[in-house]
Every structure is written in structure tokens, then in C-alpha cells.
Amino acid sequence: MMHGITLELCAGSLRDCELAERFPIDRIELNSALELDGLTPSLSALRLAGKRTGKKIICMVRPRPAGFVYYPEEQKTMFADAELFLQNGADGIAFGFLNPDHTVDKTLTSDMCRLILQYDRQAVFHMAFDLTPDPFAACETLIACGATRVLTRGHAANALEGTPLLAQLNALYGDDIEILPGGGVSGDNASEIIKQSGSKQIHFAAKSLKQDSGGYLACDERKINAILDNLRKNI
């Protein structure tokens, strides 16, 4: 934690989790395939990360890229993965279920929250939120479902542009659900996102393109340092 701000790193691998251990990061969102905006990680990645870092770990449950309207077979996989992660030490699950009209799927979201809360862990609705047609109705649905937190850009291209809505959501619903700004967070804007949104936490990937017979994304130490320096100097 820095100046009372909870810092969450979006990690795409065990290596990224080990990198987080070198910084005052409080929480890791563990994914695979950051170049696809984050998919479900392996169970082995969670187990090894739990042994090698003292950070809290939120596991992404997202079986494929693209949208968030899932077939029954995909839903079963998501619930099975979530339970395995919870049984193996995950501190929470990040997920998102939408209806074809992009409203929050209340039935599936309630069921997932119920499963997570049975383990006394954190239920995090991810950036599927930013596709919903009415963010206020979506936030009220998530509160009714029992979600702990919502990760959002504020229905904008990035969290800085979304700060007006983030601030509204915090003012209206911040006592009932945590509003976690994320998306496009950098060493140039992290402190402004915190100041303008009213949130006391922030989510960032700090990622760069790596090469290995093709490109993939991974967390970048320099970008993490730039974000932390921005927060140290301006908060």
C-alpha cells in the first residue's frame, strides 16, 4: 500500500507475480494471455504463485477472448475453475457474465458470488462492466448479487477519461461495493485517476511487448516504477 492506496497488478504469468514481490503491490490479478486482455490462468500458476509471493491473488475466470455471453459448457468450466482456485488458496475470483443485451446476467452473477462468498473470498466483476448500457443499473445489480468489487474504466477508453463516472459511482455506491479504476493506467496519469475518481485503489498491468518467435505481453519493471513514482510524488 502506498499513501493509503491499494495497488493491484494485472499479471499474466508466474514471472509477473514474482516481479510484483519486488514492489509495494498489495494484490495481484492472475491471468494468462494478457495480449487477449487476460484469460483463465492454470491451477499450477496459482499454486506456485501462492508459494512465491505474499501478495493476495485474485484469479481471472475467463475461458475465451471476445465477449461475455457464455454457452452452458463455458459456464460450467468457469464455475469449476473458480471452485478449484478457491480450494487452492485464491483470495478472490474476477469474472463477468452479461446477457445478449449487455446487461449484467443476474442469475449467473449471483451464483458465482454465492460460490465465492461461501469461501469468504472476494467476488470481483471485471471490465465486462464497461459494456453495460446503464452503469448505474449495472452497479445496483452487482450490489444485489453480493459482488465485492467492480473493475472499470468508467465506461470510457481509459480510466482517466472515465473519472467523471468513476467519481459518481463512488459517491452513489462506494459504501456498498468497491470501485476499482483500471485501464490505461500509466506513470503519467495514475495519481490523477486516484484524485479525480475518489477511489483508494487502482489496477494496472504496466505491460510491454516481449518477443519469443512472436510477441506476447508481460509486466514491465520500468512501467511499474513509473506508476509508483507518479503516486509517490503526487498523492
Explain this structure.
- The protein is built from eight helices and ten strands.
- The chain has 235 residues and is α/β, with parallel strands linked by helices.
- Helix 5 (135-145) links the parallel strand 5 (122-125) and strand 6 (149-152).
- Helix 3 runs parallel beside helix 4 and helix 4 (106-118) packs across helix 5 (135-145).
- The two termini are 12 Å apart.
- The mean pLDDT is 97.
Please describe the topology of this protein.
Blueprint: E1 6-11, H1 14-20, E2 27-30, H2 43-52, E3 56-60, H3 72-87, E4 92-95, H4 106-118, E5 122-125, H5 135-145, E6 149-152, H6 163-173, E7 178-181, H7 190-197, E8 201-204, E9 207-211, E10 215-219, H8 221-234
Parallel strand pairs: 1-2, 1-8, 2-3, 3-4, 4-5, 5-6, 6-7
Antiparallel strand pairs: 9-10
Helix pairs in contact: 3-4, 4-5
Helix-strand string: EHEHEHEHEHEHEHEEEH
Helix proportion range: 25-40%
Distance between the termini: 12 Å
Poorly predicted runs are: none
Q: Brief overview, please?
A:
With 235 residues, the chain is an alpha/beta fold. Helices cover 38% and strands 19% of the residues.
